[in-house]
Design a protein that fits this description.
single chain
């Protein structure tokens, strides 16, 4: 690795820490999120947990900054992270940067729709439990080659779309 890439990582770490300091209120939570960023930057871990109460605002910025750290995020945990309809578009743009994401937990966010960007990622696990979904989008079938786990309990689903039958790898 050349000098330029280590300088970029240092700048990315500084930017990540600055965003964490700006959007995470509690000192212990800030330390936890910054430590996760360091692990990602050193390519020693593949998970990022930004669940509430650790993080309650600024999620899209944190996800984008984490994507810049250089490590590949394969598992993203966003339980009760206040991802509502108003933030969904900005959140989806941040998610699109996580091209190696395999597992995402979006439980307890009161989401009424599923970000379409999820269907463009190589997900093998998608947890949408405890939201406010009334239907699942047809785009779910785009995950037919990769999705193994789909958690959708505690929603307002009255029926499952026909496309769910195309998810041959579900356990």
């Amino acid at each position: 690795m050349g000098c330029g890439s280590s300088l970029f990582r240092r700048d990315a770490r500084t930017a990540f820490a600055a965003i964490v300091n700006r959007v995470v209120d509690e000192a212990e939570a800030r330390e936890l999120v910054i430590a996760q960023g360091e692990i990602l930057a050193n390519d020693e871990g593949k998970q990022l947990d930004l669940s509430a109460p650790t993080v309650t605002r600024g999620l899209p910025y944190l996800i984008e900054a984490a994507a810049d750290l250089g490590g590949s995020i394969e598992r993203l945990i966003l339980v009760r992270s206040a991802i509502d309809e108003a933030r969904l578009t900005q959140f989806a743009d941040a998610l699109a940067r996580l091209r190696e994401l395999k597992k995402i937990n979006l439980e307890g966010n009161q989401m009424v729709s599923v970000p379409e960007v999820l269907f463009q990622l190589p997900l093998d696990s998608l947890s949408l439990s405890d939201n406010a979904l009334t239907s699942l989008p047809p785009g779910l079938s785009c995950l037919s080659g990769t999705l193994v786990e789909l958690e959708i309990r505690k929603n307002f689903l009255s029926a499952l779309p026909d496309e769910i039958g195309q998810l041959n790898n579900l356990r």
